[in-house]
Design brief:
The chain is mainly beta. The protein folds into two domains: 35 residues, no CATH class; 35 residues. Helix content is 5%, strand content 56%. Strands 1-2 form a two-stranded antiparallel sheet. A hairpin with a 2-residue loop joins strand 7 and strand 8.
Amino acid sequence: MTNTHYLSGGLCISCHTVDSTWITCSDQSTPLSCIPGYYLSGNTCIICSSASPSWSHCNDASTATLCHTGFYLSGITCLNCT
């Protein structure tokens, strides 16, 4: 079961309305997962391309899972196709 909403003052609040990069959360300050293209670091969703401009999707700051056009996945990083 995922927590895409949390209860606040008797209202069900969507995690995505707190931060557009959040998918699931436990409350208004604690994300549990991020949208594709972002990874969770502490209580922040960080864009994968900040780890490397060639990364499109990643598990964390050291593990790419999908690369931008012109790059291919080699192990846990993206390499230039040329």
